[in-house]
Design a protein that fits this description.
By secondary structure, the protein is of the alpha+beta class. The chain has 2 domains: 114 residues; 221 residues, Aminoglycoside 3'-phosphotransferase, Chain: A, domain 2 (Alpha-Beta Complex), CATH 3.90.1200.10. The protein is 48% helix and 13% strand. It contains 12 helices and 11 strands. It has a 6-stranded mixed sheet with strand order 1-5-6-4-3-2, sandwiched between helices. It binds adenosine-5'-diphosphate and magnesium ion. The site of magnesium ion has 4 residues, from loops. InterPro entries: Kinase-like_dom_sf. It holds the Pfam family Choline_kinase. One of its GO terms (molecular function) is kinase activity. Belongs to the choline/ethanolamine kinase family.
Length: 347
């Protein structure tokens, strides 16, 4: 598929502000949102949706019709913004929404976007690890990962690119000897894992969500339909990263070791994923190995992201607590891997 031929999303060079509902109404009224017409300011409601770290999302409703307003966080400094790959996020969103795999992008503005609002609620952790939802989530991943695309270097941001960016920033900011030594060990581990992946996992790259935690999955409690949101990290990457990254999110946003997926849960999820392709015992064993390796890599990557954010972000989050816990869990996962795939992991 030729990407440039389908990228036509509307881009308005204006700033949206929830404090100015009249302007907001006029703006949304002029977009092509089906069934949306808001004539009375009194019928407009603006509800803040509990958001993630960097952005703020709002549900903007008029009568029974709603859209999502997503405002990007500007609290970070310039050095950070260059890692946000905003252009790719919107191009991917535009492409995927046309395939029904992402919310419709009604408009992009200078500080955010207006998107389709998915009726429902965030999936609960227990639901996400139940076989019924595992099947639905795995099936969505298959749809995403099997999309054909024109390989455009711009869209290719593998975890190795991100490791390089994050570690470069971290190294320029570290000053204390003990911290430098600790980080050198992390970097060595990443390097060894990269070589191991190169030797043992040959996979075609594909379009990946790259951040499928439970806050980014909306379910319709009535129909049990599953939708993915938040394509901020979406890019062309290794599919095993996407799966490993998702599976490791079972341990909640606090990265609790006891909540990590069991081998049975990992296998069941991967069987659903492979079912729609091919599924021999060898293939499943390989999938378990690849996903578990990438569960470790994803944990290390988010650890590096958190450590980088500690230096760059102006937001008042407890980044040290976040990244230290990620590194702790990463070492735990490494231990587990060594126990099960010892012969392969000789570092
Ligand atoms: N298209 C949407 N439909 C319904 N709810 C949404 C939509 N987009 C975002 N939300 C809600 O807003 C929250 C934050 O939005 P998200 O895009 O994930 O931002 P962040 O990057 O901050 O995680 C989500 O967890 C979800 O509850
Ligand atoms: Mg999110």
């Amino acid at each position: 598929m030729e990407l440039s031929s389908i990228i036509k999303y509307p881009y308005h060079k204006i700033l949206l502000n929830v404090q100015d509902p009249r302007h907001l109404i006029n703006f949304v009224n002029n977009l092509n949102v089906p069934n949306w017409k808001c004539t009375e300011i009194t019928s407009l409601s603006i509800k803040k949706l509990c958001g993630g770290i960097a952005n703020t999302a709002y549900k903007i409703s008029c009568g029974t019709k709603s859209v999502t307003l997503r405002l990007s966080g500007f609290e970070t400094n310039k050095e950070f913004d260059k890692f946000k790959n905003i252009e790719i996020e919107f191009l991917m969103l535009d492409l995927l929404s046309k395939m029904g795999l992402a919310p419709i992008l009604y408009a992009r503005t200078l500080n955010g976007s207006i998107l389709e609002y998915y009726k429902g609620r965030k999936i609960k952790l227990e639901e996400m690890r139940s076989a019924m939802f595992q099947k639905k989530i795995a099936s969505k991943f298959v749809q995403l990962h099997t999309l054909s695309f024109e390989m455009n270097k711009k869209f290719k941001i593998t975890c190795w690119h991100l490791f390089k960016e994050y570690t470069t920033v971290i190294k320029t900011h570290l000053v204390e000897e003990s911290e430098i030594l600790h980080f050198q060990k992390i970097e060595k581990l990443i390097l060894n894992l990269k070589q191991l992946v190169k030797k043992t996992i040959q996979s075609d790259l594909c379009i990946c969500h790259n951040d499928l935690n439970y806050s980014n999955i909306i379910i319709n409690p009535k129909t049990k339909e599953v939708k993915f949101i938040d394509f901020e990290f979406c890019a062309i990457n290794n599919p095993w990263f996407d799966l490993g990254n998702h599976l490791v999110q079972y341990c909640s946003k606090d990265t609790i070791i006891e909540l990590l997926p069991t081998n049975k849960e990992i296998t069941t999820f991967l069987q659903f994923y492979l079912l729609e392709k091919e599924s021999s015992l060898d293939r499943i064993n390989f999938a378990v190995y690849a996903s578990r390796l990438f569960m470790l890599l994803a944990t290390l990557l988010w650890g590096c992201w958190g450590q980088m954010m500690f230096f760059l972000s102006n937001l008042n989050n407890d980044y040290p607590k976040y990244y230290k816990q990620k590194y702790k869990v990463a070492y735990y996962l490494l231990d587990q891997l060594r126990k099960e795939f010892g012969a392969k992991i000789n570092f």
